[in-house]
Amino acid sequence: MGNDEKKTIVYTAQSKYYYFAKQMITKYVLEHDAIPLNPFNNWSYFMNDMVERDLVIRANANLIFISDEIWSFGPIADGVLAEIRVGMASGKRIRFFSVGKSYCEIQEIGKEELIFETELLEKESRENILEELFGI
Question: For residue 25, how many other CB atoms are within 10 A of its CB?
Answer without folding.
Answer: 25
